[in-house]
Amino acid sequence: MCASCSYFSRQIGFTLIELLIGVAIIGILAAIALPAYDSYITKSRIRAAQVDLVALSMVIEASYQRSMAYPAGEFKSTEAVKGKFGAWQPSEKSFTYSVVSSGSTYKATAIGTASSGKAKGCTMSIDNEGERGSSKCPYGGGDWQ
């Protein structure tokens, strides 16, 4: 054994305490970051659904300009709405879109599904007069109203 070698110069690797401290720091950072990330995702889903509703409203208004009447009917699923208004494609898949329309009025609605996380049950709507409404939306549904 070398007389000039000290205990500290021969130490290789990490001690158990150092590893536990590192794991604890990572755990604390994850506990702070994950809820913030979840709220960011929820807000972005709500905002995307709002944009989809405005785009749908524009497609319905363009249809009105061609025939001077809104297409009458109830389109209760996203697929039915896409089938009737082919120029519209939603970017947000975690909301279900529907349109109820008569010859002179319409109301387009987006409802959060189970895959939308905290936005489940969030309901937003827009009508032919541009009136917007929302209910059960976390974070107030943004500035939708």
UniProtKB/TrEMBL annotation:
Keywords: Membrane, Transmembrane, Transmembrane helix. Pfam families: ComP_DUS (PF16732), N_methyl (PF07963). The keyword Transmembrane applies. One of its GO terms (biological process) is type IV pilus assembly. InterPro entries: N_methyl_site, PilE-like, Pilin-like. The keyword DNA damage does not apply. The chain crosses the membrane at residues 12-37. SUPFAM superfamilies: Pili subunits (SSF54523). This is Type IV pilus assembly protein PilE.
